[in-house]
Amino acid sequence: MANFIPEDKIEEIKNAADIVEVVSEYVLLKKAGRNYSGLCPFHSEKTPSFTVSSEKQIFHCFGCNTGGNVFSFLMKQDGLSFPESARFLAGRYGVDLPVGEMSAKMRQQVSEREQLIKINHQAMDFFHGNLLSGRHGEKALAYLERRGISRTVVDTFKLGFAPRAWDGLFNSLGRKHVPVGMIEKAGLLVARKDNSGFYDRFRDRIIFPILNMSMQTVGFGGRVMDDSLPKYLNSPETPVYNKRRLLYGLHAAKKKCRKEGTIYVVEGYFDQISLYQRGIENAAATLGTALSSEHIHLMKGFVKRAVLIFDSDEAGIKASERSVGMFVREGIEARVVMLPKGHDPDSYVSEFGAEAFYKMAENALEVMSFLMKTAEKKHGLSVNGKLGILADLRRALASIEDMSARQLYIKELSELLGIDERTVLEKVRETKATLEKENQISARRNERLQLAAGSERSRKAKSLNKGVENRLERQVVAMMLQYPEILPEVDASCVLDHFLDSTLQFIGKLVLSHPPGTKEGVSNLMSMVDDTEKRNILASLSIKEEMWNIRDCRKIISKLIGHSPKRQEIFLKEQIRAAERDNNQDLALKLLDELQKSTVLNRKQMREVLREH
Fold this sequence. Notes:
By secondary structure, the protein is an alpha+beta fold. The chain has five domains: 2-106, Zinc finger, CHC2-typedomain (DNA Primase, Chain A, Alpha-Beta Complex); 111-241, DNA primase DNAg catalytic core, N-terminal domain; 243-363, Dna Topoisomerase Vi A Subunit, Chain: A, domain 2 (3-Layer(aba) Sandwich), CATH 3.40.1360.10; 383-437; 464-608, DNAb Helicase, Chain A (Orthogonal Bundle). It is built from 29 helices and 16 strands. Strands 1-2-3-4-5 form a five-stranded antiparallel β-sheet. Helix 12 (269-277) links the parallel strand 12 (262-266) and strand 13 (283-285). Helix 14 (314-330) packs antiparallel against helix 17, helix 22 (470-482) runs antiparallel to helix 27 (550-562) and helix 28 runs antiparallel to helix 29 (585-612). The longest helix is centred in the C-terminal third of the chain and has 32 residues, at 421-452.
């Protein structure tokens, strides 16, 4: 895929892009010595282990061992292909890329994801154009004006209108020779039940394009302008659209979110847009689904505090119950505002204004306090009422993994109910045991699927990497990356030929053939590697700052070469154990034969050395 963009242009993008600037769009970074650190966007953690090096233009997480350069960060964070990440950075940093140089064969090889993104962008232009044209969009534009939506906001969020016709978008994309199968895969067409063709999914609706954090159009939401049902219609799950990993409007809200440290989470498109229009720009909306751990993990890169704005109904309470453990796990302070009856965020801010909204948000209750107050109001404090409150809250309490936080909440609840803490704790433990059992069943199911997909090979590699002997090989590669002065001696000693880890050997040879002579040298090496594991190892061994000198480097080289026979024996024993675990008797016998020959040879060599002395 990288061949579609000339190498000189990739180099120009790397020189222009600043990884700290790009990562800061997703992660709150703080200066830590020569590097920057923050909470990893790829796994849950409360203590920062994610490091970004401005000097080397790479990142690495010491928690989950993920690493790479600016391209691989975007590829992992937003699920982009390499060309997509390169084009995104080129647009951001003003690097002109050649257009129209692909052959017909190359065009066929462009990733499915890129095709779907392009189709969605064309659909967005179609819907937006329809809204602004008098013939199709007059009614829709008047509807938006009645709801107080300005033309500026219409343009900012590229709002659109899907005409009443069954094939309006279908015909428009057809004239551009877009394959029907790809339009359907983008979720824009629905197959007729009689197999006679397709029709547009969105018809006679206000259209809300859904953008990811890289400003790519990945899906759509549509709302009717009357009382028809369903009121809202969203894109189905596609290779580029996953509602559990997206928040509507976050691409526009992230700057204000970072500045304020707070995000307002609402449930509808109009709710988010109404808040944004009135200056409350740090708002985002869920996409017709409950808050997920992925949503909360996404927020973590921008904020320390989330204020959930829910309608005054049972669904809002349930949403709070489900989310409490996830917020605690991610280290985000979460509060809840329950709007007055008959109001949603859109109607409330339209009637009372931004100042009233901010005042209400300031008085928002912390999630567990909100749940306790709501449960108390629902059940009362009779004996049966207290039992009802405990039944409502014990699952939320059990979902909190932080023992200290859970204990404080249990204490608060026991005081409310007038029940001994041990009684509440016992009920919570019972629920937690049930949840853990469910999680174990799910984990075992996932593990079986991963093993079937080849995770066993990865497990063996990790096991080998943890070995004592493997540390020598990692030290050699680390000094090659951090102390290029040793490269001539590494080459002359042929120490890489003594490596048992093929991945480390590959990286070592790559470093020898492409010495990291500039500060971005490691970043350049990563662009030459397609394998994620190799990029992670490169980042891990590069980002640590160690004090190297020629004498210590030579000692490590000598030690590794001197231990070579013994290391070969350890390696073969590890492979034999792995073969036995897999019940591969033929391989185990073959490896055992190799081990016996190697052991005899090593003893013979040792006797010869002793005779010489």
